[in-house]
Design brief:
Rossmann fold; alpha/beta; 7 strands; about 260 residues; binds NADP nicotinamide-adenine-dinucleotide phosphate
Length: about 260
């Protein structure tokens, strides 16, 4: 029996081993979804999978590279078989390879484009047919305030801006099938990714967060649960008229 037979709906979250993806997976489980947690290594998804099961929902950990077309097709086929056809997709997997333009290697550029853009394209293409069959679906892409330009992130900013155009286009193409596509563009969210940035610029992690919080109107940094809250809103049945939007999640109007 699949989760669909039991009335449970299935979500796929990429980059779900930790950080924002882990929080989104846990939130979707709390909201009643069976969840496939995708990350590079299946073993890395164990904690996330346990957290989903602890909420009484079916879970599947999948180790795959979202930029590998064959692996994505095979992974989504496993989701269908073990959890039922997915109707929610959160394209969250991401990496940074920061450097000033004159020092940025072709590999730094390609890796960032591959994970964010090619990965979101491949995952969305593999999952959309199940959403179209169901005449219902929700795609949420992780953009970033860096899409507006950020020193040292020419590759990442271009990828995150690209995801915004991708999101709007999916919204237009898939809207007639009851499928919405929206993006979240977070500012500072405290995760391993921002901790790595602190290390790169040589600032103590606690100090780095305090400095960021002082610049944010709500006087705190964001946390993965803040992003999960917005995902839950976009995914909600009642959000069917919210489509093609980019929500800047920054603790203030200043982005
Ligand atoms: P994170 O803690 O670094 O987690 C990202 C996860 O994605 C990691 O588990 C990573 O696996 C996985 N991943 C990387 N490449 C992958 C691939 N090719 N296939 C499958 N999984 C892959 O990052 P985060 O801070 O939670 O960020 C999540 C998303 O939000 C990213 O798209 C990021 O760009 C975006 N975002 C974050 C912030 C922020 O302030 N944190 C702000 C704006 C946007 P490994 O550990 O094995 O590398």
């Amino acid at each position: 029996m699949t989760s669909t037979d039991t009335g449970v709906r299935t979500a796929v979250v990429t980059g779900a081993a930790r950080g924002i993806g882990a929080a989104v997976a846990a939130r979707l489980a709390a909201d009643g979804f069976a969840v496939a947690a995708v990350d590079l290594e299946e073993a890395a998804t164990l904690d996330t999978v346990s957290a989903i099961r602890a909420q009484g929902q079916p879970a599947l950990g999948l180790g795959l590279d979202v930029s590998d077309a064959d692996a994505v097709e095979a992974g989504v086929a496993r989701v269908v078989e073990q959890l039922g056809p997915p109707t929610v997709l959160v394209n969250n997997a991401g990496i940074t390879r920061d450097n000033l333009l004159f020092k940025m290697s072709v590999d730094d550029w390609d890796q960032v484009m591959n994970v964010h853009l090619r990965g979101s394209f491949l995952m969305s293409r593999a999952v959309q047919k199940h959403m179209v069959d169901a005449r219902w679906g929700r795609i949420v892409n992780l953009s970033s305030v860096s899409a507006l330009g950020n020193r040292g992130q020419a590759n990442y900013a271009a990828a995150k801006a690209g995801l915004q155009g991708f999101t709007r286009t999916l919204a237009i193409e898939l809207g007639p099938f009851g499928i919405t596509a929206n993006a979240i563009a977070p500012g500072f969210i405290a995760t391993a990714m921002t901790e790595a940035t602190a290390a790169r610029v040589g600032v103590d992690w606690e100090e780095f967060q305090q400095q960021a919080a002082a610049r944010i109107p709500v006087r705190r940094v964001g946390h993965p649960a803040d992003v999960a809250q917005v995902v839950a809103f976009f995914v909600d049945e009642r959000s069917s008229f919210v489509n093609g939007q980019i929500l800047y999640l920054t603790g203030g109007p200043n982005i």
